[in-house]
């Protein structure tokens, strides 16, 4: 049993010594002391179904034995910097990761986070093209350093960073967007930005395939092929941010961009890549990667032996346990059941997403799509009491984010929906 400090003690320390900007879920924040696969345990030993997965981070399950074994084997031998000396763990994982990529995407740059990966990808695009302008989508989240905060396009995540060279295109949002599900109409806005907001030449375009922080918004069909064509014509590079949608989470595909049938020039990733271990990567072509030889570039710990040992174990577990297929089968069942709830409750305005990246948007008026923010918080709180943890997001904070470990079972999915059903029925 857990004998450490209580939740109240931790909260007091956090208030005294940690960033005042740290936020937490729930009126009484959970003190999570153990994790096992899709379950989390609090200090009293109470079990919760983890349907948020540390923000789409845990793909294999918490404390997956194969991942732990790989990490501990490596750390018992050596942990050190990625650069300067050779170590097989780094090279082995780079090779395995490259084998999961389409086209000529086979050069891997490791980082410690998604922010770093996107910063690097944007810099590479600017170096390669000699241009500065980058287009990203409204409602996107790409990170919190200067460049990526510029590409991020939700005011609640932005400080007053200098925005030079970042243009934000209309979001191809099938639920709230002006053109509904017509991806090609939204893509025209990117061409307009190129024509009227730049010299006609751009460094690149960056987007998620399914916006995570933005509230699980799947880009309207046919959007990316049209945009990628415009960007290529303008000499730019296309960057796919797979920080949340990668590693089989969408079920139908290993990478989110594949759902739109495109091949990017650069793919950025983090979160699921290490099942919770800090690791990120940019994968690109040898030709594009060459630009970084113009100066010295290195990252002390990005892709260090322990983190890449974790990464390799993650890829093996996804394959061995057929987690992508599980994300597809169980995720489809979960989506079907959530969609049925929408018929039962007026407050559910939309159910969307793919595989194990699902969103449920609550509105107090279906016609006006008025965000039901308070109700969203209430349902989350009640579901926690029933033992189910889900996330929330979206600009208005009225979208449930369901991004569990990919080992979620059909029974877990049913329990989640039953808990949501019960809570909504009591409102
Ligand atoms: N891109 C996306 C799509 C993300 O969701 C996030 C994190 N929420 C990031 C980039 C930034 O990753 P990190 O927090 O690891 O810097």
TrEMBL record:
Its cofactor is pyridoxal 5'-phosphate. Transmembrane segments: none annotated. It comes from the Eukaryota. GO terms for molecular function: alanine-glyoxylate transaminase activity; pyridoxal phosphate binding. It comes from Acer yangbiense. Keywords: Photorespiration, Pyridoxal phosphate. Its EC number is 2.6.1.44. GO terms for biological process: photorespiration. Coiled coil: none annotated. The chain holds residues 81 to 507 of 507 of the full protein. Belongs to the class-III pyridoxal-phosphate-dependent aminotransferase family. This is alanine--glyoxylate transaminase. It catalyses: glyoxylate + L-alanine = glycine + pyruvate. GO terms for cellular component: mitochondrion. It is an enzyme of class 2 (transferase).
């Amino acid at each position: 049993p857990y004998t450490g400090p209580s939740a109240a003690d931790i909260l007091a320390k956090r208030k005294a010594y940690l960033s005042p900007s740290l936020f937490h879920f729930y009126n009484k924040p959970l003190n999570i002391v153990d994790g096992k696969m899709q379950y989390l345990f609090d200090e009293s030993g109470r079990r919760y179904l983890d349907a948020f997965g540390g923000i789409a981070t845990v793909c294999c399950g918490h404390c997956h034995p194969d991942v732990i074994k790989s990490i501990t084997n490596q750390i018992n031998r050596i942990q050190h910097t990625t650069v300067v000396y050779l170590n097989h763990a780094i090279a082995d994982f780079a090779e395995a990761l490259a084998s999961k990529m389409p086209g000529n995407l086979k050069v891997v740059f490791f980082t410690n986070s998604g922010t770093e990966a996107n910063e690097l990808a944007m810099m590479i695009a600017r170096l390669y093209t000699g241009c500065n302008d980058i287009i990203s989508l409204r409602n996107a989240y790409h990170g919190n350093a200067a460049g990526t905060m510029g590409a991020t396009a939700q005011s609640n995540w932005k400080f007053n960073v200098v925005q030079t060279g970042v243009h934000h295109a209309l979001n191809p949002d099938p639920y709230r967007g002006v053109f509904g599900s017509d991806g090609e109409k939204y893509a025209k806005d990117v061409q307009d930005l190129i024509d009227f907001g730049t010299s006609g030449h751009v460094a690149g375009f960056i987007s998620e395939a399914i916006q995570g922080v933005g509230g699980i918004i799947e880009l309207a069909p046919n959007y990316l092929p049209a945009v990628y064509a415009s960007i290529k014509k303008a000499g730019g590079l296309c960057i796919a941010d797979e920080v949340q949608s990668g590693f089989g989470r969408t079920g139908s595909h290993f990478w989110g961009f594949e759902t739109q049938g495109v091949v990017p020039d650069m793919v950025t990733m983090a979160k699921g890549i290490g099942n919770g271990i800090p690791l990120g990567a940019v994968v690109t072509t040898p030709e594009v990667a060459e630009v970084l030889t113009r100066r010295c570039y290195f990252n002390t710990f990005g892709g260090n032996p322990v983190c890449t040992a974790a990464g390799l174990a993650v890829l093996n577990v996804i394959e061995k346990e057929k987690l992508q297929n599980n994300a597809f089968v169980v995720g489809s069942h979960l989506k079907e059941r959530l969609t049925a709830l929408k018929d039962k409750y007026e407050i559910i305005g939309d159910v969307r997403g793919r595989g194990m990246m699902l969103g449920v948007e609550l509105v107090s008026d279906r016609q006006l799509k008025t965000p039901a923010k308070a109700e969203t918080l209430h349902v989350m709180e009640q579901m926690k009491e029933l033992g189910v943890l889900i996330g929330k997001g979206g600009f208005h904070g009225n979208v449930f984010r369901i991004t569990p470990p990919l080992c979620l079972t059909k029974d877990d999915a049913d329990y989640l929906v039953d808990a949501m059903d019960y809570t909504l029925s009591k409102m």
